[in-house]
Design goal:
GO terms for molecular function: peptidyl-tRNA hydrolase activity. The chain has helices spanning about 25-40, 45-55, 65-75, 100-105, 135-155, 155-165, 175-185, and strands at about 5-15, 60-65, 80, 85-90, 95, 125-130, 170-175, 190, 205-210. It is an alpha+beta fold and about 220 residues long. It folds into two domains: about 5-105, Bit1, CATH 3.40.1490; about 125-210, 3-Layer(aba) Sandwich (Bit1). The two termini are about 25 Å apart.
Length: about 220
């Protein structure tokens, strides 16, 4: 497959200088935005099918503020608002054919932090690998991958129940021991392609829910 056939799912996170979102909120918003498109692609069903049929689920997170954000919102897509975060998901596009107003946005500058401890977690929980250092933008994309793998591994009844809960997910950082155990337990695991920041094959996230255990082959 050459680059002209590759597609990517654009995600834009709103990061205003005075009011940046919490890191966990941004990751959870990104995951929910991806799930929203998977659950109901609407008029973008063809683009979604073309993207998923490549066998690669590449996602790129860019940041926007002020007029940049307003231009992003004017483009086709959906915005998810989750506590302090706003994330917009756009229909998949060819890797080399981004809409101009999205292509102009920066990938760097997403060094978000949490200023408070996240509240209680509800399943599904997307567990971040504590051994890796990722920018918030990178982690948002990886959380989106984990949510997508969890969606694929869920049955119709499980998806329906998840839908009733607003496609909500929790994102948390695991302990090293817990992450190692979960990644070998038959739960969906994200292994990074190595395009940016971390080594190819790195396990970035594990998707954890009672109904997901054993749905994939053990490592």
């Amino acid at each position: 497959m050459n680059d002209s056939e590759l597609m990517v799912l654009p995600l834009v996170v709103r990061i205003e200088r005075a009011t940046p979102p919490e890191r966990t909120d941004a990751m959870e918003a990104a995951a929910t935005a991806v799930l929203s498109l998977l659950d109901d692609p609407g008029e973008w069903a063809a683009e979604l099918h073309a993207w998923q049929s490549t066998g690669k689920i590449r996602k790129v997170v860019r940041r926007a503020r002020g007029a940049e954000w307003r231009r992003a919102v004017a483009l086709p897509g959906r915005t998810v608002e989750h506590r302090t975060a706003q994330v917009r998901v756009h229909p998949p596009v060819p890797l080399d054919a981004w809409p101009r107003d999205l292509a102009r946005l920066q990938v760097s500058g997403t060094e978000l932090t949490d200023t408070r401890e996240p509240g209680p977690a509800d399943a599904p929980i997307l567990w971040e690998n504590p051994a890796l250092e990722m920018s918030a933008g990178k982690a948002m994309a990886q959380a989106g991958h984990a949510a997508q793998l969890a969606w694929w591994a869920s049955g119709e009844a499980e998806r329906a129940a998840w839908r009733e809960r607003g496609l909500a997910v929790s994102v948390r950082r695991a302990t090293p021991e817990a992450f190692e155990a979960m990644s070998a337990s038959g739960l969906p695991v994200v292994r990074d392609a190595g395009f940016t920041e971390i080594a190819p094959g790195s396990c970035t996230f594990v998707a954890d829910a009672p109904w997901l255990l054993g749905r994939v082959a053990r490592s």
